[in-house]
Amino acid sequence: MKISSLATTAFLAAAVLLAGGVAADECGAAAAAMDSNLNLPASLAIACLKSVPFDQEQALNVTGEIRKYLSFYSAGTYFQHQVCPELDLPTVDINGTLSTIEKNIKAGTYTSAYDVNKDLFELFGSVKDGHVKFLPMCVAGAFFFIHKYPLLQVAKTPDSIPTTHVVELANVAGSLVPRAGRQVLAINGIDPTAYLENMARSHPEGDWIDPDARFNELLVSFTSGQWVQGLFASRTYYEENPIQLTLEGGNNVTVEWSARFFNNRADAASNPVPFNDNKSFYSSMCVRSGDELAAVTSLDPSGPPTQNKKPALAKRDLEAELGVLEKRAGLQGALSDGTIAYYQLDNKTVVLMVMAFTPASESTDQLKYMSAFSRFAASFIESAKAAGMERLIIDLSGNGGGYLALGHNLARQLFPKSDKPFFGSNMRWNPVLDGWMTLGDPSIVDQTFFALNQLKKQDGSDWKSFREMLGPIHRDDGYFTQISISNEQADNAAAQGAIYSDYSLTQPFKTENVVVVSPGTCGSTCAVFGESMQALGVKTIAVGGRPRVGPMQGVGGIKGSQVLKFDDVAMYSAAFLSPAILAAHPELQPLQPYPMRLRTLGSTINFRNSWRRDGQFLPIEFLYTPAEYRIFYSVGMFPNISVLHEAAREVAWGGAKDVSGGPYTPVMGLDGSKFQWPKGSGGVSGHGTIKGKNWNSLGELIWEKMRGGR
């Protein structure tokens, strides 16, 4: 029901009074206004967020710790240059911007904690990488913001230009499913595509480095097993900018935003909101307790590393069911949680839908899931071949990643004899990372994924020492470790033999009979898997993106090979660098990261860059790799995703027309070799120099880093 402006004003006025007529502060008003589903007007939520006072000392502590964590960020130096123009991103000087924020803190420019934390949130958001997030709860986490006009773009046919529509939910065979409603002619008076492209370029919540993947992220999509509204209609970060839609027929609609408390609980009575005024909001939502901070450094470092997946934020579901498939005869099956499934499209073609490399429930046992996933994949291959299937469509739509070992494993199962998958990676060198491995107690380090036997040289031989592997290498405007490959046997040993590893079978499908379908929103472990498929010669069909004929990447990021939480970094530092070690090496003390008191919905950095075997001029994240084919979503694909698979089949093997525009050569070349680094940036092509231009020893480099050098 739409509330009139007069009624809204009356409601808001009433909401600032508590029982007994006592005036409430901003967060008290927000708590009092929540309904049973924890919904409230957006204006009250944002007023509560902005009520947190500015504390200069605390703000400087936050920026100081962030700078330590950013020293582990593997890709930061690349954003200072236009290494890949197709990504449509401005250059970002991360350290320089952080210094500007610190300068403004000291100058008293900020008037609330919200303002300074918003700038930090936007700094991390500027790199458009789902592995690189800083989401203070009291900026982008305590509430998320929604409205009732999610959008999608659909075309009449897969090879025609789509138009923008609001989403309607239709009842199909008892299931609510999304479909295209009225066409949107303008957003805030401009062409809807122009509005959305600008949002994809500038909105700080974008997770994908590729512009077409970011465009798709704004719209309704099927992601990790559920329909999601897209960033146009559902965000953790609220911008107080009005939105007006002009719909076909001349109707103008002013979008009304609402907010929802972050955990999306349905029954506020049995799960009471943990605050009733500004003070309790701050203590419960904005900062962590001493016990929580102590728990971080007491964690067991030998436990499983953070999963390679896009960080989960507040739930943004449409109240709609998948309705993916028509009832079909023949081959079909699914893992119990639906994260991987298959069905028979025709008498020659089978579709494997890999929606995640991680369980749907966070409570699922890691080893049991890894065993179930890998054995399900093996069972699928066996069943498909027994049924006479010759062609395979792998649908990676909305796959945000998961366990890296499962991405490696699935690639190996499909191509068991090939040596072409190359899982190369390196780390950003810094003195603390060096200290972890060279000074840390081997009995602790060797029980973690930092153990030297977890990595091999690019030729498959063993590293002789941490010193050999660590370098550092001076290249790409920074210092890095050597490029290594994963020791897949060690991966499986770390999983205690849970992962299926019988690669002795013959290749189940000919390479030319396999295609990957993706809207670009394939990240982290999914990107590693997609990259391995491309290296093997498997063709890719990109779907959606900006409505124009031209190239699009099938894998639009997140392309780093490992993510770490800030708390992971603090935990490893506490475990590896004991007080005795720090006392013996005082140069490391000011660089040692500690858990942050500021509470965040997510705070992460990409820890390892991914590399191809050949060239190695730039990490994969900064290489533009156009898909061989491209199609748009057509009307029939909502809600029946099998129509998408039929269109993919016709493009791949039936000679159907696509919209890729033909072969495309990236500005910097497919391998990035045409980009010229500025003088003094270090070596190139994977080698670099062990001795940097301005330092003659490791100790000298450490002091350079302490003084703020790159």
From TrEMBL:
Top-level taxonomic group: Eukaryota
Lineage start: Eukaryota, Fungi, Dikarya, Ascomycota, Pezizomycotina
Residues annotated as signal peptide: 1-24
GO biological process: proteolysis
MF terms (GO), sorted A to Z: serine-type peptidase activity
Keyword terms: Signal
Species per Swiss-Prot/TrEMBL record: Sphaerosporella brunnea
Domain CPAF-like PDZ: 145-263
Any matching Pfam family: PDZ_CPAF_rel
InterPro entries hit by this protein: ClpP/crotonase-like_dom_sf (IPR029045), PDZ_CPAF-rel (IPR056186), S41A_metabolite_peptidase (IPR052766)
Protein name: CPAF-like PDZ domain-containing protein
